[in-house]
Amino acid sequence: MIRNYIKIAFRSLKKQPFFTMINMFGLAIGMAGSLLIALYIYDELSYDKMFADADRIYRIDTDIKFGGSERRSSEAAPPMAAALEQDFAKVESTVRFRDQGSILMRNSEESTNSKERGATFVDSTFFKVFGIELLSGDKETALKEANTLVLTKMVAEKHFGKDNAIGKSVVLNNEDTYIVTGVIDDLPKNSFLRDHSVFMAMAGNVASREDIWGSLNFFTFVKLRPDTDLDNFQVQLDGMFEKYMVPWAQKVFPGITKASFEASGNYVRYYTMPLTDIHLYSDRNTEMSSNSSIQNVYILSFIGLFLIFLACVNFMNLSTAHSLKRAKEVGIRKTLGSNKKELIAQFLTESGLISFFSMLIALIITLIALPFFNDLSGKSIALPVANPIFWLVIISVTALLGLLSGSYPAFFMSRFKPVDTLKGGSQNNVGGGAVRSTLVVFQFAVSMILIVGTLVVFEQLKFIQNKDLGFEKEQVLLINDTYAAGDQLRAFKDEVLKLSAVQNATLSNFLPTPSGRSDSSFFQEGDSEQQNAIQMQEWGVDTDYLRTLGITLIAGRDFNKQSVADSSAVIINESVLAYLNLDAQEVLGTRITEANGPNDIVPYTIIGVVKNFHYESMHQNIGAVGLFLNKSSGSMAIKLKSDDYSGVVSSIESLWKGQAPGQPFNYRFMDDAFNSTYDAEQRLGRIFIIFTILSIFIACLGLFGLASFNAQKRTKEIGVRKVLGASVSQITFGLTTDFLKLVGIATAIALPLGWYVMNKWLQDFSYRIEISWQILIFSAVLVIIIAILTVSYQSIKAAIANPVKSLRTE
Amino acid sequence: MIKITDLEKYYATEEVRTIALNKLSFSVKTGEFVAVMGPSGCGKSTLLNILGLLDDPDGGSFMFNDIEVSGFNERKRAELRKHNIGFVFQSFNLIDELTVFENVELPLIYTGVKSAERKERVDAVLEKMQIMHRRKHFPQQLSGGQQQRVAVARAVVNNPKLILADEPTGNLDSSNGNEVMGLLTELNEAGTTIIMVTHSEHDAKYSHRIIRMLDGQKVTENILADFKSSERPLTTEGGTLTPAEVK
């Protein structure tokens, strides 16, 4: 029986190649889109779950408000881990990371450095807490001694080839020699450690043993015992402030108490962040690796479900529309004795076959699209072809979709009365019109919202890229890690300045591109009230800084090379003025002090004020910055005259090789560095585009189906109208406007909603566009044009049909 | 008014060619009431479709008021049709979504009559057909006889010169059928030319002349009543149309 069903199903699908193709392709597109999203979400949800006991590992986060500045840190004070372990029996073990960012590393027997990303000091409990096994070395002793380190397999092989790295030594940053005591496997891409490859023994980090509760620079993880009550643990955490922080603070600010600290509106709060939640829920000022957000998961889940749902609905609509053509077949089958059950089985077999082939096409589309999608989403997802569960899911989804999308047409058609269908009339009273119309409205509303979203994201990106940043980012070459040149750095800068293509160059430790930074507390001279503290970034620069980056001085003067006194001078930005309640002219000559310790207070004189410039992404307001003259050497910014970038870069590189042989030459253009700040937004924008196109495509298929359904349903009416003298254009117009009404309703729903949603998104930016009415109008017009194009094919086809055929009743 | 000569029409499927009209010739004078009879498949409906300018003949000549219309394109046919020809079908072919009034109003909309005049003319014709009290009802709410009266009203609202009726009583009981035939006779007496396809000898007796067909050819012609012609000019939107203008 089933074989007979399949045989007939094949034939009837083959008889209608166009219809079958549209149906299959539409379903396949929806399946492929949803599959991609499902893989993406599966990956997003898998973060950090691979660690043993991941469910009872927590990070200690700290919220702090002090001196007018607030910080939401994912780090804790250095003594926190030991204190927790000592005070609470529920704490099974702890581990701290002190991130060092990138370092230069070389095999001690060689002279060429290479740059390694993600070096960190880590406690020797690292292996125990995360259940990480060593490929070679002994995990009991690997990170016990100072100046020992553990490398990932990739880095170990890079420096030592296939040789056993254990016991060999490496030199870091041209200074410190470390012995390799262990090699671990490369860390999974979906773990918070994915960017880390060098783990140095914490014993070599002096700060890790200091009893300073005020600095937050250790990522601290605790593993709790299985039966720990988290609420109870939180209560204990709350007590840490009074027990440890206050006694420590009293050493710096004598007389301070918990009450007086909190009375001035300040606070210090500790929280636990589950390890497996970090990737999707943690959004703090510093993170060990960049995180995603659960919101993206929700948005994408919605889009994924939307795609597959619509693909199914459209399949139903198309099949139902198509079924009118087969009414006669049903009539004959019934007359010949086929019962309803057999008919339903027949039609379900057909939809099952379509679903099956659609899934095949969808898998092929997914395979082809995956590399692009990975590029777009910054992931490395693969189809888990080796996983039987994956295939089980695929097969069940295929069957389910076939059943779901085939059910309505099957029941609908099997209900036809043979007498009516054989006479050729009377399938006019088909129900469900309101449902079909609602679905069209829904599809188009969502498509329109997606279009509005895409346009707003791109407008905002354009706005950011064209906004006056307060400094010049074009034609600026950045050379990172210039400290590697050591004493030769000044000579290198002088040589660079001699190049004809170079206009200016500056050495500094901070540039107006996003990087890790921290505030320091300053006070107006004579004042040490903590609530009056000026929380200000401290950037070390040289005398060429303002000139090279084109930062505008609005009062006072730039640093002077000849003036010795300028070593205790500071140039502030406009944001600092708010702390001092002075205007740019009045503030000149004001002295501010920095307390490095109880008896170490350093005064600086304000000599200039610069216009505010954007140094973080436009999500943030511009904070207070002070520029200090010092022998900083972190990176060099070079302002170029010419556009011949490759020529200049290679001559600068050869100068670098001359002054710093064996040191890596890392350069970037500042506008690239700037653009990468908005990677997340660019990615969002591109993902928006893809799924917008997909959703419009599927919506169009749906509309196409509905239009053909309606045109068939109204064949007789159209015939009558034509006989009565209606012209082709009148009929086409009439049929098209019916659908445009639906699209009109969709517009009325989508535009306000799209406006609202995207306004919410824009709230995240401190500097943002207003959503213009042009964007809304454009989206609406675009959708309407697409709808007209989709519908007019069916409408025109119906309108030019000869009425003689549609009115024939014999 | 109508003169067809050697009219031919074929229906071809992939393998078989069926001849629907085989060198058919006859003419109809203005004001005449002609019944066309014959067994199923003899080509009656094909003939009616061609006469109604819904279909194109494959050969022969079709003069409509001395204008050769057999080569006309769809647009020209539609133009001529909507000003001059009214249709009455066996299955009424009313549009279910429109009310009685709106159904009758349709031809006037397509010929571009202004709304106020439309209302007047529709009301007048509904009054004449004695269906005024049903003007706001939908077709399904009416009896078959009432539906056919609406269809006739719709066919005549534009004052066509020619009414083509395809088994107008086929779906009606005899009393309703007689009523419809009475209406058609009245219209004919008022000067409208009528060509009616029918199976019913009873209905055919209302006509002046019966043309009997078999296998696409005219077999016999019975003259039932005396008829005196009074030619009226063909009109379009603007008024009188001469043969030269149509070409």
TrEMBL record, chain A:
<dbReference type="InterPro" id="IPR025857">
    <property type="entry name" value="MacB_PCD"/>
</dbReference>
<dbReference type="Pfam" id="PF12704">
    <property type="entry name" value="MacB_PCD"/>
</dbReference>
<feature type="transmembrane region" description="Helical">
    <location>
        <begin position="297"/>
        <end position="318"/>
    </location>
</feature>
<keyword id="KW-0812">Transmembrane</keyword>
<keyword id="KW-1133">Transmembrane helix</keyword>
<feature type="transmembrane region" description="Helical">
    <location>
        <begin position="21"/>
        <end position="42"/>
    </location>
</feature>
<feature type="transmembrane region" description="Helical">
    <location>
        <begin position="771"/>
        <end position="791"/>
    </location>
</feature>
<feature type="domain" description="MacB-like periplasmic core">
    <location>
        <begin position="474"/>
        <end position="617"/>
    </location>
</feature>
<keyword id="KW-0472">Membrane</keyword>
<dbReference type="InterPro" id="IPR050250">
    <property type="entry name" value="Macrolide_Exporter_MacB"/>
</dbReference>
<feature type="transmembrane region" description="Helical">
    <location>
        <begin position="687"/>
        <end position="711"/>
    </location>
</feature>
<feature type="domain" description="ABC3 transporter permease C-terminal">
    <location>
        <begin position="302"/>
        <end position="414"/>
    </location>
</feature>
<protein>
    <submittedName>
        <fullName>ABC transporter permease</fullName>
    </submittedName>
</protein>
<dbReference type="InterPro" id="IPR003838">
    <property type="entry name" value="ABC3_permease_C"/>
</dbReference>
<dbReference type="GO" id="GO:0022857">
    <property type="term" value="F:transmembrane transporter activity"/>
</dbReference>
<feature type="transmembrane region" description="Helical">
    <location>
        <begin position="433"/>
        <end position="458"/>
    </location>
</feature>
<feature type="domain" description="ABC3 transporter permease C-terminal">
    <location>
        <begin position="689"/>
        <end position="803"/>
    </location>
</feature>
<dbReference type="GO" id="GO:0005886">
    <property type="term" value="C:plasma membrane"/>
</dbReference>
<keyword id="KW-1003">Cell membrane</keyword>
<feature type="transmembrane region" description="Helical">
    <location>
        <begin position="723"/>
        <end position="751"/>
    </location>
</feature>
<dbReference type="Pfam" id="PF02687">
    <property type="entry name" value="FtsX"/>
</dbReference>
<feature type="transmembrane region" description="Helical">
    <location>
        <begin position="343"/>
        <end position="369"/>
    </location>
</feature>
UniProtKB/TrEMBL annotation, chain B:
<dbReference type="GO" id="GO:0005524">
    <property type="term" value="F:ATP binding"/>
</dbReference>
<keyword id="KW-1278">Translocase</keyword>
<dbReference type="GO" id="GO:0016887">
    <property type="term" value="F:ATP hydrolysis activity"/>
</dbReference>
<dbReference type="Pfam" id="PF00005">
    <property type="entry name" value="ABC_tran"/>
</dbReference>
<dbReference type="InterPro" id="IPR003439">
    <property type="entry name" value="ABC_transporter-like_ATP-bd"/>
</dbReference>
<keyword id="KW-0547">Nucleotide-binding</keyword>
<dbReference type="InterPro" id="IPR017911">
    <property type="entry name" value="MacB-like_ATP-bd"/>
</dbReference>
<dbReference type="InterPro" id="IPR017871">
    <property type="entry name" value="ABC_transporter-like_CS"/>
</dbReference>
<protein>
    <submittedName>
        <fullName>ABC transporter ATP-binding protein</fullName>
    </submittedName>
</protein>
<feature type="domain" description="ABC transporter">
    <location>
        <begin position="2"/>
        <end position="240"/>
    </location>
</feature>
<dbReference type="GO" id="GO:0022857">
    <property type="term" value="F:transmembrane transporter activity"/>
</dbReference>
<dbReference type="InterPro" id="IPR003593">
    <property type="entry name" value="AAA+_ATPase"/>
</dbReference>
<dbReference type="GO" id="GO:0098796">
    <property type="term" value="C:membrane protein complex"/>
</dbReference>
<dbReference type="InterPro" id="IPR027417">
    <property type="entry name" value="P-loop_NTPase"/>
</dbReference>
<keyword id="KW-0813">Transport</keyword>
<keyword id="KW-0067">ATP-binding</keyword>
<comment type="similarity">
    <text>Belongs to the ABC transporter superfamily. Macrolide exporter (TC 3.A.1.122) family.</text>
</comment>
